[in-house]
Design a protein that fits this description.
Length: 163
């Protein structure tokens, strides 16, 4: 005999699940805007590669280490983004045997599209919550993250995909 599942009220979730699901929902809004700006093939997971290429070109080995992935997995992610036109490999200026991965013009445009979408989302949140409540929410989540998260990874742009 099948039973009907009881609805779950978000306010009754534990804080970790609530923060996670909120993050998913906000990421979906940003990604939808990125897609609307023409970058329709990008996925949430691509951001974990992009973050490592914003400030510096990287080798596959460096990406592997920073993302805590095997070199094979890092290479696979790079190949996919190469095929989509968002990254390219180029010789290292100091050692022609070494290939570095870098964002292409399309990759940088996608980063800018994401940043613009995040700014618009922040404006929407201010309209809904007000500036003071939004800042209080941000401060509370930051304090929780400081207590339980690896903030050093965030500051160093070394956030890895969830295991």
């Amino acid at each position: 005999m099948a039973t009907k599942d009881r609805p779950v009220e978000p306010s009754q979730l534990d804080l970790g699940a609530l923060a996670l699901f909120t993050g998913y929902a906000l990421s979906d809004v940003v990604l939808a805007e990125v897609h609307a700006s023409g970058h329709t093939s990008l996925r949430f997971s691509h951001g974990f590669v992009f973050q490592h290429l914003i400030e510096s070109d990287r080798t596959i080995g460096e990406l592997s280490e920073r993302m805590e992935l095997s070199q094979q997995a890092a290479s696979k992610a790079v190949v996919e983004l190469e095929q989509l036109g968002y990254v390219e490999r180029a010789p290292d200026p100091n050692d022609g045997r070494v290939r570095r991965v870098r964002l292409t013009r399309a990759g940088r445009a996608a980063v800018e599209a994401s940043r613009a979408a995040q700014r618009r989302l922040a404006e929407r949140l201010v309209a809904v919550l007000g500036k003071r409540r939004l800042e209080a929410t941000r401060q509370t989540l930051s304090e929780v993250l400081e207590q339980f998260g690896n903030v050093g990874e965030i500051r160093a742009r070394r956030v890895r995909a969830p295991k």
